[in-house]
Protein 1
Amino acid sequence: MRAEILAVGSELLTPQRSDTNALYLTERLRELGVEVGARVTVADDPGLLESAFRAALGRADIVIATGGLGPTADDLTREAAAAATGRKLVRDAGILERLEQRFASFGRVMAPNNAQQADLIEGALEIENPNGSAPGQLLEADGRLLVLLPGPPREMKPLFASGVAPRLRERTGAVPLHTLVLRIAALSESDVDARLAPVYREFEGVATTILSQPGQIELHLHARGASEAEALATLERSADALEAALPGRIYSRDGRDLPAVVGDLLVERGARLATAESCTAGLLAARLTDFAGASRFLERGFVTYSNRSKTELLGVPAEIIEAEGAVSGPVARAMAEGARRAAGVEVGVGITGVAGPDGGTPEKPVGLVFVALSGAAGDTLRRRQFPGGRERVRFQATQTALEMLRRGLLGISE
Amino acid sequence: MRAEILAVGSELLTPQRSDTNALYLTERLRELGVEVGARVTVADDPGLLESAFRAALGRADIVIATGGLGPTADDLTREAAAAATGRKLVRDAGILERLEQRFASFGRVMAPNNAQQADLIEGALEIENPNGSAPGQLLEADGRLLVLLPGPPREMKPLFASGVAPRLRERTGAVPLHTLVLRIAALSESDVDARLAPVYREFEGVATTILSQPGQIELHLHARGASEAEALATLERSADALEAALPGRIYSRDGRDLPAVVGDLLVERGARLATAESCTAGLLAARLTDFAGASRFLERGFVTYSNRSKTELLGVPAEIIEAEGAVSGPVARAMAEGARRAAGVEVGVGITGVAGPDGGTPEKPVGLVFVALSGAAGDTLRRRQFPGGRERVRFQATQTALEMLRRGLLGISE
């Protein structure tokens, strides 16, 4: 069962506005076991609107339009929907009377243009609107369900809940869709997909979507089941199969982000952390403290941007900086060790690199980053060459550091 | 001239995600005099996608699709667009070679699934993508312009600017819309609007939009003119009038963000900075180093999350922490002074607060933050009570610190 959502209104096509109705409807429909195949925002133009209704009715089982039901000349939804279904509009005497009463109750006489709000598509049922003047409409035609709802969210939402959801529940038998999110850090989308596609392509009843950003991949698994427990069991089995194809790489199945996973591991292991950052300049510490409770594991952090600060605060020997350069493996190692010792904690991490866009050389190009660990999560060093601009390089450097901490704390080798 | 925007990706039809590309494209198209007639978001489904392309090509002069150009099995945009235009896909040897080189430059062998990114619709021009592996495509067919762009905004935006906008400018011959962005930090939207609305309401030929986020307000001024110089002169006069109504508060007219403005001021004044952060835990240092050249002014930073680190690294007397609490004016002052002295630099800044969601008390509720400066930007202390969650509180704390630095360095009193 597939739905399409049509948002009507030229004002929704300006850069400042976004259509919150569609997000609400997407969430409600998904709970009802209805997938949204497409979401369309259309200007107040009769030809465009009719074409959008035709296209939607041609490919979806359920079409829900919001907006364009008011009294003004650019409220064209009724006409366009009627034209697209080949039906006429019929003025409903009962609705008209209630409209007139509504105006009278505010002590006003109804202006004639309001009467169009009493026009129903031939054969449509009215969905009464207690919070506004334009009622909703619901039409079953050619096996499709066409629903027109007013645009203001405080009118649209109660009409959907009272007039549409119960009918959809009947139609679908309401098998809700469940989702499990798997997260993977510091691998590329193509590497992940090459390893996992052969697995998830074989899934039956589980749909998989891959979302990628630099340094982070998410796999969204969707399934339905006779019960929630059954759907979740199916999702967990699918996740197990993916995990087996990429052992030790899926860092979270429960919605937690990588800094939270690392923070929880540090707390579990009773290990406190000190960070030493050069090119990332505090970004790692800031990410590790994005959530409450970080004082249980982060003791302190050093932003050692200058060479002098690396030597004074972390004891990185000036000769090593001189001989190897500030961006080098030995300096990253000395930073990690220096941070751990200076703070008197169990784990130290050091990051140094060329974030760019300036400062690159043939030997040390922009994007080159060294990350080192010292102490209870192992003494390891990674050299990475990241693509992309400054922001991406810095973010990916912190992802690498976090993934090294996670694997080190769990004792997973490369 | 009417455009339609197609966003491709099932993940964009989940309630959690919204399509920021469409907002960007709507704004750029508007500047080029092109109206957006419809905006469509489509799931990764071959039939739906082809139908959406057909519908869009049937009613718009320009169709721009974003997303679905990657290497995975659910990247279907190329196939669907080709099918909708009745054309074949042709693998481009030059693109394929560059793809392989790109992987080689990261020291990796290209997985075979990446090769589909070298497929062009017959007759389409490639738009080279310097920031990613999938190139854009541009096809003139039956008087329509069809454009395929990658989904990640950092890839899509430069491709639109370099490969699409110039061609649209030729086609439309439109009088472009010019925009000036004014930025204001650490004031509320209602305060700003109360002072500025009486001024901008009188503007003729200049449209004003206010965009607000916690700790930051942007005023977008839009004008057209016979020439770019004329439009810009009109915008600058309008900005002067707004500046006069809110003296010293508009920190940028040239697109620079607050950290960049503060960084440039520090360099101009020859003042080096050391940061000491507790609740923001490196976020201020990370923001100050978001752009290249930060080593000219940032000497070092301290993330003093524990009380012990405040005492050991910054010399904050343990008795003051004991007597006043770690979140207090005297501790913020001692942090700023301690950072400045320890680093041997001209300016120190200290931030301590309750970021929440836990840790609040009746005397020191969540959102309470103290920010102090020491040295060449003045010795000042601010106490602020921020609304909102942890992320908002932390961001606003850094905005306050940056705005204090800016005003201190410029010698503007409160």
Protein 2
Amino acid sequence: MTTPPVAGGRPHPRVALDAMGGDHAPAATVAGALLVRDDDLEVVLVGDAERLRSQLEEAGAAGAFEIVHAGEVVGMDEDPALALRGKRDASIRVAAALVADGKADALLSAGSTGATLAAGLLAIGRLDGVRRPAVAAVLPTRGGPTVLLDAGASPDVQPEALVAYAVMGAAFAGVRGVGAPRIGLLNVGGEPGKGNALAKAAYSALEAVEGFIGNVEPDAVLAGEVDVVVTDGFTGNVFLKTLEAAGAAAEEGTGPGAAVLLGCARPVLVAHGAADAREVAAALRTAAGVVAAGLTERIAEQLVATGTREEASDDG
Amino acid sequence: MTTPPVAGGRPHPRVALDAMGGDHAPAATVAGALLVRDDDLEVVLVGDAERLRSQLEEAGAAGAFEIVHAGEVVGMDEDPALALRGKRDASIRVAAALVADGKADALLSAGSTGATLAAGLLAIGRLDGVRRPAVAAVLPTRGGPTVLLDAGASPDVQPEALVAYAVMGAAFAGVRGVGAPRIGLLNVGGEPGKGNALAKAAYSALEAVEGFIGNVEPDAVLAGEVDVVVTDGFTGNVFLKTLEAAGAAAEEGTGPGAAVLLGCARPVLVAHGAADAREVAAALRTAAGVVAAGLTERIAEQLVATGTREEASDDG
């Protein structure tokens, strides 16, 4: 795997951290950043500068990180689009702008996934050919890790979106070291012709994708029969949350700690809202790893190589 | 709860058992029927008369049950509608006709759920106001049993269908002894406005239903926060299969062993394809219990009392 140079001539990947996002922010975000001080990555803290400075001082680490001020925060339960429109100085928006302007290489937030996605789309944009980014979560299975997408970004999609998910998920699995990823469609039966209208149409569209092995039921996913499993963001989120509720899976990300929004033009990652310092640190390392591995560039190449383009058939 | 007289002046409920349905039929079905010989129910075995007679003889129980001959079987992987059209003498069709003609009070099969649903609709029909019957499964939760519907009958539905599911599910919970059932909509977030287009529209429609408490995520369902959880048959089946794959739930039925197809004009029940004799016996008892409890009559009353009618807005 080629490792492209990090943008901007920086020695290490630089992650713009929405320091105000998440249930335990900014305490957990600042403490998490401090845990990776000695790693090969840089962190920019974005949020209320006074609070962030005082958090650092309390930890005896004044001046440890560059701080970029943002005076507002998007709450977990706010409508993402409305909140972003109303709060031009929201931490997630300011952090996304840093990535868009090349001042950071990746965006990470433990705040609202919807707001992170919306800010990413607004400031950073999509890869050519992608209309609906997907959350890629990594599930532990009896056969090793399996990439699930969409784990919750886009609840209503056309069948063609699942083709883009398959191509992006295969590139993601490739970056993670899987040679020839096996791709499955999450469904309620193994045979062709099963499922709802979306699944049936997606099955037909996916037959042209290299590595597609057909429908997979939840037990086949947990048995590790595929490396990538694709579905719409509603079903994927129900699936993921059911696994979590049943104690059968912890959402992981590339490494642990964060899930990647595939389809954005630069790396955008979301950590659990309840992330503690250790999980924020893991998510920061994951973000840096995604940059170093050139995941976004790899996905862009694969979308072009396979001629994958979602139809612009709806309003999103 | 009033217990209506069993139809036809019979002393006990009579169940038409598709003796050829299921992975281990007819051995498991005949053995299951023999386990309930001393119970307050009658069983009619429907299928290949010669094989059924020889099964009974081998068990030293020649003549134990009435046998109704049917020369064909619908396979688990056949298209239900096509198979039923082509096989007029299929065991599931003949068994459904017995119920339609009043010669039995309930239909039970461990064969294809799709074929059982199709045969039920064809021969027995729907309750007034229902367009899409739903599979009601009973999930064990930390707060006691919760009725899930649709657990897999109808993958593509209009939002109005979920209102009928709520009314039918509440009646089902009522028959099971729940006083004022709490009804939730399976969703990816607790707040209003979450989910895909179907969930959002269903939420609005459900607000008028007595007992509706709003969206419930998978963890809230497993915590027992609702007595009834409604969703479309695709999401419900993914949810159920994920719980089963994660070891968090065994599908139960009214009692254990079978799930009820709510919305048919007479009781129709499906057992697991892999059901063994003990599970077939439990399913037979469940079927008899549904008849004795007057579940279908109660649902019919509730649909009328609440003025619930699904719109005839699609082709099914």
